[in-house]
Amino acid sequence: MPALVALLEKKGLEDGIRVTTRFKDLAGESYESQWTLNPLLFDGAPIETSRGMDDLMKAVEKIPEASTGLDGRETSGEGGGNGPT
Predict the structure, then answer these.
(1) Which of the two residues, 26 and 16, has the higher pLDDT score?
(2) What is the phi-psi region of residue 15: left when phi exceeds 0, alpha when psi lies from -120 to 50, beta otherwise?
(3) DSSP line for the chain
C-alpha cells in the first residue's frame, strides 16, 4: 500500500480517481454512474489477507446443528420447533 500512496500523491491524485460508466440495458435505456475511488482513505489501515476455504469450512462447522429442524426451518425451543401452531 505505501507504494500505491506514493504513486497517487506523485500523480496529484490526492482527491481520488474519478470513474464514469455508461451502459444500456436490454430495453435500450441508457444509464450513467459516476463515483470517486480514493485508496488514500485507507492509508495506514491494516490490510487483511485473504482467507482460504479451510477457514470458511471451520466457520460453517461452528453453526450448531440443533438450530435447525429436519425440515431446515429454524427451531424456537418451544413446542417442537416446527413453527407457529
Answers:
(1) 26
(2) alpha
(3) -HHHHHHHHHTT-TT-EEEEEEEE-TT--EEEEEEEE-GGGGTTPPPPPPP-HHHHHHHHHTS-GGGB-TTSPBP-SSGGGS---
Residue 67 has pLDDT above 70, yes or no: no
pLDDT of amino acid 33: 95
Q: Distance between CA atoms of 12 and 50, rounded to whole angstroms? A: 30
Give me 70's grid cell.
Answer: 429436519
Phi, psi of 28 (to 5 degrees): 90, 5
Q: Determine the Cα–Cα distance for residues 14 and 40; give it in Å rounded to an integer.
A: 7
Q: Which stretch of 40-44, 60-64, 67-71 has the lowest confidence by average pLDDT? A: 67-71
Whole-angstrom distance, CA of residue 48 vs CA of residue 2: 15
